Amino acid sequence: MLFEVLLAVVVGAVIWFVMNKLRGPEVLKTEDGWWGVGERPEAGEDTTIQPFHLSTSDAELEDLHRRLDQTRSVPSLHNSQFNYGFNSEYLQKVISYWRNNFDWRKQVERINQYPHFKTNIEGLDVHFVHVKPRSVPEGTKVIPLIMVHGWPGSFYEFYGLIPMLTEPSQPERCIFEVVCPSIPGYGFSEAPHQKGFDSVCAARIFHKLMKRLGFEQFYAHGGDWGWLVTTNMAQLEPKTVTGLHVNFAPPQPGLLVTLSILLGKSFPKLFGFTAMDLERLYPAVQKQLVEPLLESGYMHIQATKPDTVGRALNDSPVGLAAYILEKFTTWTSKDFRNLEDGGLTRKFSLDDLLTNIMIYWTAGCITSSMRFYKENLSQGLNRPHTRIPVVVPSGYACFPNELMHSPELWVRQKYHRLVSFTPMLRGGHFAAMEEPELMAEDINKFVHIVERQKK
């Protein structure tokens, strides 16, 4: 019986390979959209790019402080740590720091250290950070790179990474020109006013953004939703995206993935599973079912009724902080659920975490950010982009504490020209923010490989 199963796997793989070769690369199709208020104007699109400068006011801070002062605490269960969500006792310490020590005006200055802009695309004012290297040695090629965030992050996730890419300390590293847009509905990008804005729409808008900035070709990097948006960018225009680097690549359900889970522990070499893969995949029920269920309750809410909880979070800074910061504990390491402080400041500073919260709070974008789940997931799991492989050179940074582990075999199912697969030393879901040096190193390694292959 086992021989017949293995034979079927081999024959199926050969047929799949031949059919894909005969069919040739498939390109994702899309059409222009309109996401602004009302109908599309006949006058056409305003393509100008305007500087954007973040500011705050006494009234904004007074309102925040009033709401923080009036929060109603709820006692946590004894010895519950973070297993019931964000621990209420520790949350009071975060609130106290936020109210009495956190300097939002100082963080606004930090945000403004890089040039920010807005431009209108498909009816939306799209916000982006655009950082050019200050000095470039003669004869050195500057490499354009778009980096896309996810939820509940923002462009600010990349602030520790940007200087390592644009002003590298090591002479052998590439020098990048970096563009970090806010997904529409996130941060300071206008929220869509019409239904249906999904990852493919965001990918199309970001292609238009890069063209408007004068880039004919560029590299792309993403994690969380940024993984899907940049993957869609590569599927839409494979000749425009020179290379794609991601640090999140959840598996696509299928026969090969299912068989590898069922048989991989007994026959790891058959599927190319390493000791690392076996450790992170098994026992399968615990690692592939129980753990994801423990961390995915939010997804069901946001994929079905985002506006209900969104209204509550948009009114309460404490509720917003608890909802978002919980992800920065358990998505950094599942073991942090058993700590009194959730391990929150083991990898991040409260200043950086609260800055990300303040972007959501001041922009009032939590509801529109959560709608992105409904727009993407309510259309089913068999949409065109799920069936189309990525044919541009791709790299995957495999961080050990990512929500779901993806062995190289699974990643190659989607990314057919995977030129680098790097098991990272440490780090979790918010890797660019948590381990910027490791991320910069892997992006450089990937780009060097692709650039050499182009010659």
Structure commentary:
The longest helix is centred in the N-terminal third of the chain and has 22 residues, at 2-23. The protein has 20 helices and 9 strands. By secondary structure, it is an alpha/beta fold. The protein has helices spanning 2-23, 58-69, 88-100, 104-111, 162-166, 199-212, 225-236, 255-263, 275-281, 284-294, 297-304, 306-315, 317-330, 344-347, 350-363, 366-377, 384-387, 408-414, 431-434, 436-454; strands at residues 49-52, 116-121, 124-131, 142-148, 175-181, 218-222, 241-246, 394-398, 418-423. Strand 8, helix 18 (408-414) and strand 9 (418-423) form a beta-alpha-beta unit. Helices cover 46% and strands 12% of the residues.
What keywords describe this structure?
alpha/beta; 20 helices; 9 strands; 455 residues; 9-stranded mixed β-sheet
Number of helices: 20
Order of helices and strands: HEHHHEEEHEHEHEHHHHHHHHHHEHEHH
Low-confidence stretches: 5-22
Please tell me the overall pLDDT. Answer: 93
Structural class: alpha/beta
Spatial order of strands in the largest sheet: 1-2-3-5-4-6-7-8-9
Shape: globular
CA-atom Rg in angstroms:
22 Å
E-strand count: 9
